[in-house]
Write a structure and sequence with these properties.
Layout lengths: L2 H18 L6 H12 L4 E4 L6 H11 L4 E5 L6 H5 E6 L4 E6 L6 E5 L6 H5 L1 H7 L1 E4 L2 E4 L5 E6 L12 H4 L4 E3 L6 H9 L3 H6 L7 H12 L5 H14 L11 H17 L7 H12 L14 H10 L4
Parallel strand pairs: 1-8, 1-9, 2-5, 5-8
Antiparallel strand pairs: 3-4, 6-7
Length: 311
């Protein structure tokens, strides 16, 4: 690994360490979140209220020096509330576009599954194309652009299941879960998390993050590694584990995430361990198990991994 990349990786280590002081006892999930960001993807966090989903998003944005916007998704939220609207300005005698909160660098879509399908779909173009179209005019979003969406379990009142097209736009889906005993005691005895976030200093700047994202694309994936990834993709399509398998786009997303994971581990090549470590987070939310256990069966993904030989 070059000296420049070594400096970048050192910054990434500082980033993970700093966020870990806010989200206590969840280092693995923080690493997944950073890998998702480095791979240029978007993150979905599914969990019960109050376990730190919003705090994680805010801590990442502050630590990366990026502009942060939060939108509380509700049943009456309209697409224009997210994207923006043109308003006639009498003084200028013309319509002037007023950008919505999507024009930011880190967008927290809080409780996304409490909004109706029309508003959920308004995020699709922004997440995939890094732009929005308003009244026939295309407007580019700031770079980098990262969506962190949170959702409550679908069995809670007032929630709408995200459509498959929306789920496919999220590179990873993770769960924070309750803290362990020691971490919860540290939270109870420590300072308020909001106050702690206010004391954070940026570890990286947006331009540096964009440079690291370019470095991720240069991480080497050998022919043997690609063979292994293809075998895993084929296993999802075999009909043994899932009703429908992964799309080629999902396979490319897994490879990007594995490259980012390798870079976080200070390596310039992807290993099978990198693929295995990120695969459940990258594909479980995209697949429906044949056994009817429900979308996002991480256990079935892990069982499938065990069934595929490592080259």
């Amino acid at each position: 690994m070059s000296e420049i990349n070594a400096a970048q990786v050192s910054q990434l280590g500082e980033l993970v360490d700093q966020v870990s002081t806010i989200i206590v006892g969840k280092r693995a999930q923080i690493i997944d979140s950073v890998a998702c960001l480095l791979a240029g993807g978007h993150l979905l966090i599914e969990d019960v209220p109050g376990v730190g989903k919003t705090t994680l998003a805010h801590a990442l944005s502050v630590s990366l020096g990026m502009r942060f916007s939060r939108v509380q998704f509700t049943s009456d939220l309209m697409p224009s509330d997210l994207i923006g609207v043109s308003v006639y300005e009498r003084a200028q005698e013309r319509f002037v576009f007023h950008p919505g909160p999507v024009f930011t660098q880190v967008l927290l879509a809080d409780e996304i599954n409490r909004a109706g399908p029309k508003t959920q779909s308004a995020l699709l173009e922004a997440m995939e194309e890094q732009q929005v179209t308003v009244e026939g005019e295309t407007r580019a979003l700031p770079q980098p652009f990262f969506v962190i969406a949170t959702q409550n379990p679908s069995d809670q009142l007032g929630t709408y299941n995200l459509p498959e097209s929306q789920l496919d736009r999220f590179l990873m889906c993770i769960t924070l879960g309750y803290p362990d005993h020691a971490s919860e005691r540290a939270l109870l005895a420590g300072t308020d998390r909001r106050s702690a976030i206010a004391q954070l200093k940026p570890v990286m700047q947006p331009a540096e993050l964009l440079a690291v994202q370019r470095s991720v694309l240069a991480v080497h994936a050998s022919d043997a590694l690609l063979d292994y990834l293809q075998a895993l993709i084929a296993a999802t399509r075999s009909g043994r584990w899932f009703i429908e398998g992964l799309s080629p786009r999902a396979g490319l997303a897994v490879l990007r995430a594995a490259r980012a994971r390798a870079l976080l581990d200070r390596r310039n090549h992807v290993a099978p361990d990198d693929v295995q470590s990120i695969l459940p987070q990258c594909i479980a939310h995209r697949l429906i198990p044949v056994a009817g256990a429900g979308r996002g069966s991480v256990e079935q993904v892990r069982a499938m991994i065990e069934s595929v030989a490592v080259p």
